[in-house]
Input
Amino acid sequence: MAEFKLKLRRYNPETGEAPYWQEHTVELEPHRSVLEAILQAKNNEDGSIGVRCSCKAAICGSCGVRVNGKPGLACHTHLDAALASAKDGETIVVEPMGNMPVIKDLIVDMDAVHWKKIQRVTPWLVNREPVPEREYIVPRESMVDVTQSMACIQCGACVSDCLSMEVDPLFIGPAALAKSYRFVGDPRDDMQQVRLKDLSEDPHGIYDCTHCFKCIEACPKGVAPMSQIMRLRRIAGNDHHIVDRNNGDRHERAFVSLIRDHGLLWEAELLPRSYGGDSWFGKFHPHAGKELLSSLPAITKALLRGKVTPMGALKPHDIPAKDLEQVQRIYKTVEEREERVEFNLYISGKDEDLLPSSTATEEASA
Amino acid sequence: MKVAYWPGCVSRGFTPELHGSMEKVAPLLDIELVPLDRACCTGAGVIAEHSQELADSLNARTFALAQQVAGADLMMNICSTCQGAQGECQERLDASAEYRAHINENLAPEGLEYQAGIANKNFLWVLVEEIGLDNLKSMVKRPLTDLRVGPFYGCYIVRPTDRLGINAENPRDTYLEQVIETLGGTTVEYAGSQKCCGFPVITMNKQASLKQAGTHLADAQDADADCLVTPCPLCHLNLDLQQPLAGPVVGRSLQMPVLHLPQLVGLALGLSPKELGLNKHVVKPTAVVDWSTSVVGAVGAGAGGW
Amino acid sequence: MPEVDDAKLHEDEQRLKEIIERPKTGRRVSEIKDELGTTMNQYVAVYREEEGLQKAHEVVRRLKEEAKTAYVDDQGTVFNQDVLGAVELGYMLDCSEAIVVAAIERKESRGAQFRVDYPDRNDEEWQKHIDISRNGDDVPHVSYSPVTITQWEPEERKY
Ligand code: SF4
Ligand code: SF4
Ligand code: FES
Output
């Protein structure tokens, strides 16, 4: 048994008062969870503490909160670990999740945000026609491929800290987009193209993710929503050639071909191409012109300050010709493959995980 | 120490002062830079988004080139995004001998091969883990006394924590603060220090992108920072180059200089703002330059004028 | 959704109001719940015997009384989990008593019940259901009903 200092963010909508902090001291073994600590405070000291929970075993997804500023499951966060991440070294701070309105104390309105976004992505299978008389027969690998997105328990931890959602509340967000991959990746689903077109064209869809890794870090189930979003982009662009109005696909294509052609990034060319289209002419496209005009103050200032010399901006940086040839050969080899090669650690695991433990320890001590 | 040095693209393109300042600072820290001139862009996550195999192959090629640099202690980059993009590829390459063999096949025609386990560190990590803070402190010529610096990490160098080796032993998500303090400066706490600068969506959702940059800059301004420091040139683009556009989006008048990490180190090691390319920034680092001249003035007076 | 008549709704509302307004003189809901859990775990898990079961029954009866005055901290109407806990406690006590009474009744070992004092299975007398029904606030009423055997003949477990 050890004592732990718990600081809870409380909020009661009926009093009309602002949220406030409340401290409790609880006594529990260090391997017990933050949820147990909250419940002990609730049971012994103040029954009005609001916190959702059910399974206490990281299965039901009810107990999403922020512990010391980081989103996660209260029942899946050990007290000793929470103490170790305490900002002042002694107080475990528990707050409701972010990006969702607080209903009371640690309880947020999942309906208003999380579930609405899940509904947005048609979270069910639309049968591929013709529907077979008995079950669909699909390759085993294709189902293994979607297990990662199926592992989601809808806790909302990823939604809580999504940095795109923070500035654009309309962003469909990590959990819902991971859910949509679950069906896009399912060979029985009939709507791959429709789903992807929809998610690419939506200004708050797959191209609105700012690649911040917050959702990967937050998810207690290893769903890695951001990786699923990248796979959605990959399939949308490579397999369905969807050129979206958000410049997402154009940007990706421009980037990839600039590296192919020059080895290094040529920013002055990337921006206009992202807006106009992936060729040297792209920058003369009307979209590109409009966009450049609106960033002109920034660019001319950069020129004036001598940051970007006209020559530097206009001339591509290249790597030596022989090396560029190598790079282009690698491009060719990979792009000519009939099937994409992808290595997913979630599914394959690491080599060392497969070693019998005796060998692993031997190696470690060697 | 000798490092296989990967400067990245942006540090030689839109933010040339980054590569420039690193070259100035390296000899003062006794770092010998062996540039990986033959390597290509890491893909910044975008190539991986297009094709994982392509990104892994291109970066394996860079690692293989780095492993050929005789006598190098490790590979070093000066760009968080490079660190993150390369780290992601390395994680896959190191995880499986079979997958590594497959990728190495793509390098074989030129006789290159990546061997698992390369040490690839951002300059920030090199400062703390290789050079050491005590050692760094002893090299400081002009402590950043009274300079209030807001650390801006961005995303790629702090998340995901396990891939980046952030743990109790190596709290790499606190290194910027540690370096600022070691150089004699004052760390400014503000909300955005580990949030996204918004750069990745600048072409897709400009409003959202500028709102991110603007919010963090305004937060730092409200916390009375004199400047921000970042280990990522892409963050620098959104925070500095785009600052004139970001202000109006958040309804604020912003005037927040943003320094590259080697520039901040260089200032403390006695280099002049001009040598470090501070004049190349879009937002004039007036506060920083004024600070440095006043310090020089003071030191000059005390030491009989140098 | 089934129709609910207003009188019933009103009754339930009153019941909740009564719980919320209880003076803080009785025991805490969580305390009773805790004692109930500990008791059930101690005496009414897999290994059971008459003496323990009787003890458990006594405790459950007492807790049922105490539950009537158990108080809650939360007086609000938004997400009041406290009052929900008090309501649930009533059901928990009902279920616990049904379990205890049935366990005392069944003087044999079968399935998940191992009666230390009756270690053998006794098909002759006990191959039947025990039905428990509410009896106001009193000890529940016990009756029996026959077991319908379909495809699988019940057999003694030998592992
Ligand atoms: S990576 Fe994308 S989806 Fe995930 S939290 Fe960041 S912005 Fe949101
Ligand atoms: S993806 Fe992970 S963090 Fe997000 S809701 Fe699902 S389980 Fe929770
Ligand atoms: S209580 Fe079910 S996930 Fe935490």
Q: What stands out?
A: The mean pLDDT of chain A is 90. The radius of gyration of chain A is 25 Å. The pocket of iron/sulfur cluster (ligand 2) is lined by residues A 152-158, 174-175, 178, 218-219, 221, 223, 225 (CB under 6 Å).
